[in-house]
Amino acid sequence: MSGPLTYMGTDRSISRLTSSQGGRTPHPMLSAAIEFPNLSPEIFTIEIGGFAFALRWYAMAYIVGILVAWRLAVNMVRKPALWAGEPPMEGEQPEDLLTWIILGVVLGGRLGFVLFYQPAYYLANPLEILMVWQGGMSFHGGALGVLIAGYVWCWRNGVDWRSAGDVIVVGTPVGLFLGRLANFINAELWGRPTDLPWGVIFPGDAAQNCPGVEGLCARHPSQLYEAVLEGLILGAVLLVLAYRKGWLKTPGALIGMFLAGYGVGRFIVEFVRQPDAQFVSPGNPLGLAWHIDGWGLTMGQLLSVPMIAVGVLMIMVARRRAVA
């Protein structure tokens, strides 16, 4: 997470790259910032026979997110009034689909991180691909894994993949919200340095490695920004569209809204998110994964653009089909 960084004042990732690292004006010591609260990433730890078993907030976020998404799915398929015809699933099918979705999230998230962010490293160390406990998951890869797993399950069970997908995405923001809160508790995935009053002084050498900043370094709590945009706001929009606006009657429209909404939220937060270390270099302090003459996009933004495009297209197609 650490690397050379030029403090740009506006914290924009689509910015003109500096031609050199010299000539920087040190950022003054912070007049106002929030000290990181004393939070443990572990909820509790049990020691049995010399082995320690810990329940971490991140694992709890997955568990609670999955349970809430499951209950929402069951609730929706049990309300025929929400659908244009018969609900797309019945009986134990929501639970069966959820099992496939979990596999898609884990496998897709891990392989996405390997392919999108550190392909050269994992090509040289292929056995570490399996070491998911060391960290390294990609949301965009997880989303692709869910799409593939969900489509295969629908094909095998004769279920309209668009309607099944609509059910899945309505509950997904709950997991995203809890996951970003867990990221904050773990003091990871923090943002770029800032002198805004809500900047957080995250612990650790990597978080405090802010060239050009004197004294303690406060950073954007980008995890909380994402929790609000991808979790609270997007989740509220999807619930209203599903339960109040009849969007479950237009298969695929909610999938499109989720993809477009997440993509927009992630694209925005990337302006203040700490760049991926593997893309940072003396000539590219903002960590842009693609750029021309110093202008470009981060990897998160590159992956979000097609999500937005596909999402908008799916909404248009679904609404046009409904009218026809």
Structure summarized in a few sentences:
The chain is mainly alpha-helical and 324 residues long. Helix content is 49%, strand content 7%.
Description:
The strands form 3 sheets. The protein has a two-stranded parallel ribbon. Strands 2-3 form a two-stranded antiparallel sheet. Strand 5 (290-292) and strand 6 (295-297) form a beta hairpin. Helix 1 crosses helix 2 (93-116), helix 1 (57-77) runs antiparallel to helix 5 and helix 5 packs parallel to helix 7 (253-269). The chain is built from 8 helices and 6 strands. It has helices spanning 57-77, 93-116, 119-124, 139-157, 161-185, 222-243, 253-269, 299-323; strands at residues 34-35, 42-48, 51-56, 200-201, 290-292, 295-297. The chain has 324 residues and is mainly alpha-helical. The protein is globular, with a radius of gyration of 21 Å.
Low-confidence stretches: 1-29
Rg calculated over all Cα atoms: 21 Å
The number of helical segments is: 8
Reading side by side through the largest sheet, how are the strands ordered? 1-4
Percentage beta strand: 5-15%
N→C terminal distance: 50 Å
SSE series: EEEHHHHHEHHEEH
Classify the secondary structure makeup into a structural class: mainly alpha
Percent range of helical residues = 40-55%
Shape: globular
Quick check: average pLDDT?
84
Please outline the major beta sheet.
2 strands, parallel
Query: What's the total count of β strands?
Result: 6
